[in-house]
Specification:
By secondary structure, this protein is α/β, with parallel strands linked by helices. The chain has a single domain (about 50-220), classed as NAD(P)-binding Rossmann-like Domain (Rossmann fold, 3-Layer(aba) Sandwich), CATH 3.40.50. About 50% of the residues lie in helices and about 10% in strands. The strands form two sheets. A four-stranded parallel β-sheet has the order 3-4-5-6, with helices on both faces. Bound molecules: NADP nicotinamide-adenine-dinucleotide phosphate.
């Protein structure tokens, strides 16, 4: 089952996944920043499948920008989706995950360990989510649920295009120039494709990945220069 706010996008994605895999794909249009959205998604999952093996907390949309121009509402919005969304989904679905001896993967991000003054909300949210993931993994030792976090570097999604636009605006240059600069300063050969992150998720939740537990996996093409 896939969840996001835009029903038309969900239906299109579900059609493509079902076409490629032959599996039944349910959709739920819900705003995961709101407790009511979490309830709707959990309710839909229970009625559509009645069980849960794998939870991937991926929805996140923290805003970059100048710290002095970001008020409480912008910070709260970032935490509401990516931190509280993941926390509430994990808590509501934990009994089903425990029953299935399942797995959780939280998509965090490289800014969790490389703070940036123009991406403070994303960094703080990712750091909080990473700490939460490790604590949840410790709980998972009791209930036999695997939990890991993934820290992608830049991935060529719609969101990354928005981040580039913000960075370009702050630097006073065009978006393509910003893309080149970003590639050069990070020193990576290229940015990641979404399917590369998905491949790592798929491995972590597979039987072959079962002994990888409570970790933070970096997938950034070598962009982070720290250990
Ligand atoms: N792209 C990168 O470079 C990068 C790097 C590091 C980490 N990440 C992390 O990876 C995750 C996915 O990022 P992405 O680049 O794929 O983002 P994206 O292109 O913006 O996609 C985000 C997805 O989340 C959904 N979403 C957004 N707000 C939502 C809400 N309030 N309730 C429910 N669903 C919502 C969106 O659909 P709707 O708009 O229809 O709701 C969309 O399907 C995020 O947590 C992001 O922080 C991304």
């Amino acid at each position: 089952m896939i969840v996001a706010r835009t029903e038309a996008d969900l239906k299109q994605a579900a059609g493509e996944i079902a076409g490629e895999t032959g599996r039944r794909v349910a959709v739920c249009a819900a705003d995961l920043r709101q407790p009511a959205g979490i309830e709707a998604a959990v309710g839909e999952l229970k009625s559509a499948f009645g069980r849960l093996d794998i939870l991937v907390n991926n929805a996140g949309a923290t805003q970059g920008g100048d710290f002095l121009e970001q008020d409480d509402a912008v910070w709260e919005d970032g935490f509401a989706l990516k931190f509280y969304g993941a926390l509430r989904m994990s808590r509501a679905l934990w009994p089903l995950l425990a029953e299935a001896h399942g797995a959780v993967v939280n998509i965090s991000g490289g800014f969790a360990h490389t703070p940036d003054h123009n991406f403070m909300i994303g960094g703080a949210v990712n750091a909080a989510l990473t700490n939460f993931s490790k604590a949840l993994a410790n709980r998972g030792l009791i209930d036999d649920v695997n939990v890991n976090a993934i820290h992608p570097g830049p991935v060529t999604t719609e969101r990354y295009e928005e981040i580039l636009t913000t960075q370009a605006k702050l630097a006073g240059i065009g978006r393509e120039e910003m893309r080149e600069r970003s590639l050069m300063t990070s020193g990576v050969r290229r940015f990641a494709r979404p399917d590369e992150v998905a491949g790592l998720v798929a491995f972590l939740v597979s039987p072959a990945g079962r002994h990888i537990h409570g970790t933070s996996q970096v997938i950034d093409g070598g962009g982070a220069k720290s250990l």
